[in-house]
Amino acid sequence: MRKMFTLKAKDNSVKTIFIPIGFIVLLLLLTSCNGQCNPKTDYTKQKSDQSPIAPHRFSENAANTLGKNIRYIFQDKKGNYWFATDLEGLYYFDQKSLFQFTEKDGLCGNSVTDIQEDVNGYLWFNTNKGLCKFDGEKFSTYSDTLKNVSRESLAYSQTDLFFCYDGFVYRYDGTSFFKFIIHPNTYNPSSTDLDRPYGVYCILKDKSGNLWFGTDQKGVCRFDGKVFTYFTEQGLNGGAVRAIFQDKKGNIWFGNNGFGLFNFDGKTITNFTKKNGLENPDFINKKTTSNNKPNLARVWAINEDKDGNLWIGTIDNGAWKYDGKLLTNFTTKDGLTNNKISLIFKDKQDSMWFITEGEGISKLHGKTFKKLNL
């Protein structure tokens, strides 16, 4: 079933409003982003030498090891790596040395969910205590700024950044912030209702310029520049959509926490997990994990390697590789530090990194995995 509606702003002027949101809701929605609320942006046509990110080498920021509670990985324009963590702030690796930044260094909060880089070369960090910008020397907090951002109809350009929390999606165009909603105007829950069916877990900007939003209970929402369309077929709205990915051929894949992997070829949505007999009814019916057989039911991460193989990360059954014909399951027996995959990252050198929940990062080496040690 598909539901369609159009959202329109009252006018084109800029107005400021204040909407108080409870901290619990803020933390819930920040966590739900899971480092995937930001669509990939192509900066190749932007100025590449603006505001280079080069943190001061303060001795107190030097770190010997990378923490285990990694949530997100980001590689900046210079090729340096940033690691978002739960409770341990940020780690920065300049390909030679490792550094750590926390609240004592000006970071908004020590639990970081995602990282983005704007057209000016500044880095942005979504944290449990608000939004931060790093200009290469210091951190700046934008939490108060977002409280007074105007609500608008959704217009965007290729280089805009998106941040999702507070029940809104915030757009940043390199200069100003704007916020918008993806749910119908008739949806107006009370502030005490923590159930957020339209909560956004992930965002994808596809090759045609469409925006895709993975929601908590409403399947996937697509915005084509004019109309919002909801896709709920095949049980897609039965669980939270934790990942959205577009492969080299243009197919779009959805990762659902319970009903598995879905494929959209531009016309039809297929439940790939059900088609291959890899469901986990125990989790759907009882919300418990069954270890009786491998399954592809709780998909939290999707990416593609340089050879066009699709990699799927599950939160309980390791990683799966799909080469277009065969599906292969990889677990701790193949070197993964554990079978809980929350993110799959491909760097500029085409190396594949797998974040294993609570156990750091595993890197793919041929057909096996090795734990990352910086």
Task: Report a brief summary of the structure.
By secondary structure, the protein is mostly beta strands. Helix content is 7%, strand content 36%. It is globular and about 50 Å long.
Structural class: mainly beta
Judging from the principal axes of the Cα atoms, what is the shape?
A: globular
Q: Quaternary status of these chains?
A: single chain
Straight-line N-to-C gap: 48 Å
Low-confidence stretches: 3-35, 41-52
CATH superfamily assignment of the largest domain? Answer: YVTN repeat-like/Quinoprotein amine dehydrogenase
Task: Return the CATH architecture of the largest domain.
Answer: 7 Propeller
Radius of gyration: 20 Å
Strand percent estimate: 35-45%
Largest sheet: 5 strands, antiparallel
Task: Characterise the protein shown here.
Strands 1-16-15-14-13 form a five-stranded antiparallel beta sheet. 7% of the residues lie in helices and 36% in strands. The chain folds into two domains: 16-43 and 62-181, Methylamine Dehydrogenase, Chain H (7 Propeller), CATH 2.130.10.10; 197-374, YVTN repeat-like/Quinoprotein amine dehydrogenase (Methylamine Dehydrogenase, Chain H, 7 Propeller), CATH 2.130.10. It has 374 residues and is mainly beta. It is globular and about 50 Å long. The chain has helices at residues 23-33, 143-147, 272-275, 281-286, and strands at 2-5, 70-75, 81-85, 90-93, 98-101, 112-117, 123-127, 130-134, 139-141, 161-165, 168-172, 177-180, 200-205, 211-215, 220-223, 228-231, 241-246, 252-256, 260-264, 269-271, 299-304, 310-314, 319-322, 327-330, 341-346, 352-356, 361-365, 368-371. It has four helices and 28 strands.
